[in-house]
Specification:
With about 140 residues, this protein is mostly helical. It has a domain of about 45 residues. It has five helices and no strands.
Length: about 140
């Protein structure tokens, strides 16, 4: 089988049609003139006004531009977390930020739980071999 003869590059085969030089246009893009900033009369646009706050429905950006809800906040708002669970998660997140800890130890988690007001007031319902029962806190 024979190889077809080499063809010239497309730019050499057909001359490029003459185009208007954009550098000689009336609008210099570097000058800061932007057609999107023109008024309706200046631009010659005859359609309905599409700029401004009237086109928002109020549902798109309730938190402002560039602000997203955290996964924890979203779960809590959608009913996937109880108020107690959300309080605990936010307390741990605050502890991590304040103490610059990515992963708090279990001792630190217990400290946060105690700071939230939780105390051991009942004996445990299951047996932990070789683990002594701590003293119970009296409920006032």
């Amino acid at each position: 089988m024979q190889k077809p003869p080499d063809t010239a590059a497309p730019s050499e085969a057909q001359p490029v049609p003459h185009r208007e030089d954009r550098r000689k246009s009336l609008v210099d893009r570097r000058s800061g003139l932007d057609h999107r900033r023109l008024t309706t009369q200046e631009s010659g646009y005859t359609g309905a006004e599409r700029r401004g706050a009237d086109r928002r429905t109020g549902l798109e950006r309730r938190r402002g531009p560039g602000r997203r809800r955290s996964d924890d906040r979203r779960c809590a708002e959608e009913g996937e977390m109880t108020a107690e669970q959300f309080e605990f998660v936010m307390a741990i997140e605050t502890y991590k930020k304040v103490n610059k800890r990515l992963y708090p130890t279990w001792t630190e988690v217990l400290e946060v739980v105690n700071q939230l007001g939780y105390r051991k007031v009942l004996p445990r319902n299951f047996d932990l071999a070789s683990v002594p029962e701590p003293e119970l806190t009296k409920v006032a």
